Amino acid sequence: MxxxxxxxxxxxxxxxxxxxxxxxxKVVPLLARATAKAGERLLVVSDDAAQLQGISDALWDQGGGxxxxxxxxxxxxxxxxxxxxxxTMEARNGAKYCALADGxxxxxxxxxxxxFLLFGDANLTEARACWRMLDGHEDMERNFWKxxxxxxxxxx
Length: 156
Fold this sequence. Notes:
The chain is of the alpha/beta class. The chain has three helices and nine strands; from the N terminus they run ββαβαββββαββ. The chain has helices at residues 24-37, 49-60, 124-134; strands at 4-6, 9-18, 42-45, 71-72, 83-86, 97-100, 114-119, 140-148, 151-154. α1 crosses α2.
């Protein structure tokens, strides 16, 4: 299992993001920017091809001439992409961070140092079940984030 390390201890961090105001296409660019700032690469996973295309468009069009380079799996040069968008958990770009944009947990997520699970009301029951499933893992940190008044606040 590939995981992060701090002071010799291996761990995995899972951040649950409850989307109440903004869709994944608005949130993923924020996560991608923070990931790049941390010197890491990001794999963005969704079974919804239209959602992946919307996220790609949002990453390319950050306004003010700003963009976040990204590519779709199968489009070539996957190994060069700071943010790779895919319907599989294969990090062909060497990513250690993964955003599950469609709100679905995948068992292969344990191969990443950090995972962002983005979910809305439609996936709330599954997200809660996932939170409980991950409870008690000594090598894992879990955080729960909610949108309140346009800001992200840590709820757990």
